## 1
Amino acid sequence: MNILCKENRLLFRSFIHAWIVLQKPLHATLRGVTSNNIDPSVDLLKTSMLETMKKFIYNDENLDLQIKKRGMRPLGGGEIVFKCPVGKQLRPIQLCDSGMIKRIRGTAYALRVSPAMANRIVDKAKGVLLNFLPDIYISTDPRKGKQSGNSPGFGVHLTAETTNGTIYSAEQVSNVVTNGEDPSLPEDLGEAAAQRLLYEIYLGGVVDSTSQSLAILFMALGQKDVSKIVTGPLTDCAIGFLRHLKEFFGITFKIEHHQLEDEVVEGSGCPKVSLTCVGIGYTNISKRTI
């Protein structure tokens, strides 16, 4: 399977397809570009989206994504191994409190360039984030040889974890100089990724902006029970996806402004949105029951 160009969208469809359609667990090796400025990277899929998925499934023991090789645009060369169990149905959830930020983690990678690029990214990103939180650790991943793919580049992926298990993610990837774009500086990437992560924290919610559509889908496909989540302002992708769900499944979400119980506005971030629906009760008829 090749994931070049639309690589991560294919992975996104793969674990949805595996969970709600297939009879046997999915074990797929995907090759191509793992990080670019177009789609979410495999790092973001591994942290944000898989953690969102785990909130809805009953068995996440064998749900895993391993990055064997990294690959940048335009030539790719990356390789990942994705494993997904088979499920019968999804659980309804009631998640309204995202919790407080307790730590920030991240990975800065450098492929076919000097390892110092990753260190420069880390220094700049930590310089910004330390003004917000002291518990910060950003590792470096300077790949060499075949593990570094076929094109040079560098990037960084950051995550913030809350006391309730919510994950906020942000990332930045260097430009492709061969396409006529201006070359990226590691310091600029580090600062931009840190600022983006702080913005995701400001938006808040029980899922970050990238995973809104995934959470909405699993709410719609869940059991015939009420599911409710609180998110930051809906993205254009999430709004369009809600329209597709109404057209395809005939399901309508109740969307309203989320009111804080203590009416504490200062320090609570951006105004939140409450999404409520009753699932259609979709079940995987291919999964055998005992």
## 2
Amino acid sequence: MINTLPIRKPHLRIRQTASYLLRRPPMSPIRFILFGRGRSGTTALVSLLDGVKEIHCDGEILSTPVLLPKLYLQSCSANSPTIAYGCKVLSYHIRDVQPLLQRRRFLHHLDKAGFKIIYLQRRNLFLHALSNIRARVSGYSQKKTDGPTKAKVIHVKPESILDWMQRSKRKAAYELELLQGLDVLALTYEDNIQDSSQHQPTVDKICDFLGVPSSPVTSAYRKQSPGRWQDAIANHEELTEFFENTPYAQYLQDS
């Protein structure tokens, strides 16, 4: 019998995949992929789903190259102690990390293997860009609920945010290309993750999509960003002026 949890050490992952190929144990009856981009609430959603009694949800198990990625995911599903198994796969894992011959068909291959797809997006490109930049500059991120921390105030070049938003738009187009023709449950950070009052309804919705009984959940993580983006950006007036006459002004207004 192979191990009960996904293994991150390369040689052990190869052994796990090989054992799955030889033995072909049954996979979890229900399996899914949480797909999207980083800084979109995926970590919080993994935590929420992993709190459902019948679900085991892993994080980014494809963040480093894996031999035969699809089979590795199937082996992880076969190892799950629950009836439903899922994990987080970010779009850059497919585009940049994994050794795939058909990158644009990877999600289709998983779909054929019985993996349902939950797609989490973040509509506000401005706040998404700020979140990514602040995470890199100050090191803040989703964090387990171990007490309050004070957000660092940083200076951000407007051009850096513009570059992030433009790249994010291109990545969104790539994601839609990967998902074309697939049955997907689409969620957004703003509607499903940002407000904690929406966490339980979101989990209920996902469980209905998967065909799994729901249960009361709470996330073990809390976001580290302040309530107002202006409170964390020293030159917030400069950013507002820079974007106010651009197509991206709507994102500042929405925030």
## 3
Amino acid sequence: MNTLLKSLFVASAITSMSAAAAVTQTSATEASFSFEGTIEPMCKTDSGSNSVTGLNLDSTQETQEIGTLDVWCNTGENATTEYSSANGGFLVADNAQASKIAYTLSIGNTSGVDLQSGTYKHLTTVAGTGSTGETQATSLKITPQSNGMNDAGTYSDTITVTVSPN
């Protein structure tokens, strides 16, 4: 009886396989194939000119360019950029006192950005588009709040920029 069940099972499997592979007759003269894929929205960035080593930190509080931010997005729209300061919005000296000088940031035509209160989101950063990857540059500048009486030392900060599509 066991052998009979095995034979029925094998016969059933062969019948099922041949039924699944069978070609049915149709009267159509064409076939259609539908397919799709998705490219998620994204932006890329690079720092153009940067690494300024000669900031003027006297009492003039002169606005000075620190570099350009180059942005490309595949959305055809501007980007959102988020700015954060390693030193909480201060230039910090390499002296024993770790002296600080506050500054404000300018992003293109937006000025007076204070990073002391945390990160700052800029919703209208211009972005290049297209399949060849041309970027659009946004000028970044700082205005040190120095008074000409600051402690001696080399002052620095690092601003990190994260870009995302609008």
